[in-house]
Specification:
The chain is an alpha+beta fold. It has helices spanning about 5-10, 30-40, 70-75, 80-95, 100-115, 165-170, 180-195, 250-255, 275-280, 330-345, 375-380, 390-395, 400-415, 505-520, and strands at about 20-25, 45-50, 65, 125, 145-150, 150, 180, 200-205, 205-215, 215-225, 230-240, 285, 290-300, 305, 310, 315, 350-355, 365, 385, 450-460, 465, 470-475, 480-485. Strands 1, 2, 8, 9, 10, 11, 22 and 23 form an eight-stranded mixed beta sheet that branches. Strands 13, 14, 16, 17, 19 and 20 form a six-stranded antiparallel beta sheet that branches. Strands 3-5-4 form a three-stranded antiparallel beta sheet. The protein is globular.
């Protein structure tokens, strides 16, 4: 876009404090992919991050990316096809989101990986991770999943100070790792790559308060900084990739999102300010009552955190009955929890019942954050024990006969090797728990135990409605020129389901990359 054309839509009465070609709001995997792409294509970029650390929810994550048929998978012998990947995605997501949006995501991952791998800052490796709907057509037992290769933290130099620490450090108080893996490595590699471009600038503690729209186009933003309000002009476009609104209880309530901000696994800055700023200039939204769900182990501090890889135990509701495949992908079992809550069959907490095979510890391998001392859970009434199932039922407040019958029935399934009620162990993900030979473990060894659980989330997934080029739409389906969205600030391409590990980060990166390429093309 030429400067003369630009002047036709920029009101000379607006006093800009700084200008750029591309303003990126947020600093997670999607935001930094968009910033990197724009900078690499020669555009002047400003990244604004609300908190004092960059990385967003990605920095807390495993850093997985669901990118079918990408070069990393191909080098490892992958024989998947884009047609099969699309068929799987469509079978799972259905028509809840536009077909062209689904196409853009599923087909966009492989070329993005090729684009990134041409820069030596990026290295990826295969991490087999089963698709989350193992019985759907063209599901892959090994998944379509890659992760960034680990890297020494010292490679970041001074930028290590602004990288958001992992959850074990940020919430658990552990020492920062000397080697970065997962989401830490993804953000670290993006920061390294951005260092090459002096025309890319990072600003932390800078909150997007308002977007400025003139003559129909989004042209800039008002941001709050420690020095006061500033107006940033963006000549080519603004990318909103600032996460969801899961850390804002008022906004959750307004849009009907279950749960609480304290139980979300995202950073404190994910309060939805940028989404609301876009809505204020006419942006449409979708899926606003949705999130990426998980059962959450409840801790002595009152939080319930994302929990993964159950090696035993069964969840029971207030009636003492099972209600889910406990080994299912976390979003699916989390939605079963929500269904029980809505039906009135669960009051929080609900309970994981298990025997003494693990010495009283809950039989799960990952609880999102480091566990406190066992006695703290016991003192808080969160981990209960009893010599008999009848006593345990009384302690957790469920009918004695019902719990006994539920355990007896489950033990029969364990002996037969088949869960006739919820088909635990029937899909690849159920059987992917490291070191666990079977997900169906009988509950027979006293004393018996129960651990309290709540509902956790990895972030909301409702946000700004976009087209297949990540351009934000208004309520009429018309593009708002100059405004783009990606990540959890964008209404999720996966709709109301979670097709596979790496879907959130993968989609964030693809649509941020497409947004930056569109801004470069001058066709926005």
């Amino acid at each position: 876009m030429s400067e003369s054309t630009t002047k036709s839509w920029v009101d000379s009465a607006v006093e800009w404090d700084v200008d750029c070609d591309v303003l990126v709001v947020g600093s997670g995997g999607g935001a930094l992919t968009g910033a990197y792409t724009a900078a690499r294509e020669g555009l002047r970029v400003i990244v604004v991050e609300a908190t004092g650390h960059v990385g967003g929810t990605t920095a807390y994550s495993g850093g997985g990316m669901w990118f079918p048929c990408n070069p990393v998978l191909r080098r490892a012998g992958d024989d998947d096809t884009i047609e099969d990947a699309l068929a799987y995605f469509r079978a799972v997501v259905g028509d809840r989101t536009p077909a062209e949006l689904q196409d853009a995501f599923v087909t966009g991952g492989a070329p993005l990986v090729e684009y990134l791998e041409s820069d030596r800052a990026f290295e990826f490796q295969v991490l087999p991770w089963p698709d989350y709907f193992g019985m759907a057509p063209h599901a892959r037992a090994g998944g379509r999943h890659i992760v960034p290769s680990p890297m020494p933290a010292e490679r970041l130099g001074e930028q290590r100070d602004i990288l958001r620490p992992p959850l074990a450090t940020d919430r658990g108080g552990l020492e920062p790792p000397t080697e970065l893996g997962g989401g830490q490595a993804l953000i670290g590699r993006l920061l390294l790559a951005l260092q090459q471009f002096p025309h890319a600038e990072m600003r932390v503690k800078t909150v997007c308060r308002e977007l400025i729209r003139l003559n129909g186009r989004a042209v800039g933003a008002v941001v709050a900084t420690p020095q006061g309000l500033r107006r940033i002009r963006a000549k080519r476009g603004i990318l909103i990739a600032a996460g969801g609104f899961e850390r804002n209880d008022a906004m959750r309530k307004a849009h009907g999102v279950p749960g609480s901000e304290r139980d979300s696994m995202s950073p404190p800055g994910n309060c939805g300010a940028a989404i609301e700023a876009a809505m204020a200039i006419g942006a449409d939204v979708d899926l606003m009552n949705e999130a990426w769900w998980s059962p959450g182990l409840t801790h002595p501090d009152g939080t319930s955190t994302f929990s993964l890889w159950f090696t035993g135990g069964i969840f029971v509701n207030d009636e003492g009955a099972r209600f889910t495949d406990e080994s299912a992908p976390y979003d699916r079992s989390g939605r079963d929890v929500l269904g029980e809550l809505e039906a009135g069959r669960i009051t929080l907490p609900y309970w994981l019942v298990y025997d003494n095979r693990t010495g009283g510890q809950p039989p799960l391998l990952f609880a999102g954050v480091p566990l406190a001392d066992r006695q703290e859970y016991v003192d808080a009434g969160l981990w209960l024990s009893a010599d008999t199932l009848e006593e345990l039922a009384e302690r957790i407040g469920v009918p004695v006969a019902a719990l006994s019958a539920t355990v007896d029935r489950f033990n029969g399934f364990a002996e037969a090797g088949s869960d006739d009620d919820f088909h635990r162990g029937g899909e690849a993900f159920d059987n992917s728990v490291p070191g666990s030979p079977s997900p169906i473990v009988p509950i027979t060894q006293p004393p018996f135990h129960a651990a309290a659980f709540g509902i956790s989330d990895l972030g909301t997934k409702g946000g700004l409605r976009t087209d297949a080029r990540a351009r934000v739409l208004d309520a009429n389906g018309t593009v708002i020129p100059g405004l783009y969205a990606a990540g959890n600030s964008m209404a999720a391409v996966s709709g109301t389901v979670y097709p596979g590990g790496g879907n959130p980060i993968g989609a964030a990166m693809v649509f941020a990359h497409l947004a930056a390429r569109d801004m470069k093309s001058d066709e926005s």
